[in-house]
Amino acid sequence: xxxxxxxxxxxxxxxxxxxxxxxxxxxxxxxxxxxxxxxxxxxxxxxxxxxxxxxxxxxxxxxxxxxxxxxxxxxxxxxxxxxxxxxxxxxxxxxxxxxxxxx
Length: 103
Known about the structure:
Elements: E1 2-9, H1 16-29, E2 37-41, E3 58-63, H2 67-75, H3 77-86, E4 90-98
Antiparallel strand pairs: 1-3, 1-4, 2-3
């Protein structure tokens, strides 16, 4: 399964030092047990179209071998370290989880 998270940071956190700290925190998420891959990213500078949302600041896409593994990740203390360190920095967060159903 894939776990996608989109972050909108508060304006006062969009300075160089805070962005570097946030990026280091994102890097640490991929070390949490159960995560088998993925990356963090910023919006790609693609052609503007009505269906494109580039309002977010950072996103992660993380892969897990199963929904159950992702559920365990959600309760991992290291995941909470990230949340507790940065939750006051977010103006908004959206999560979109995908479970492959291809034949």
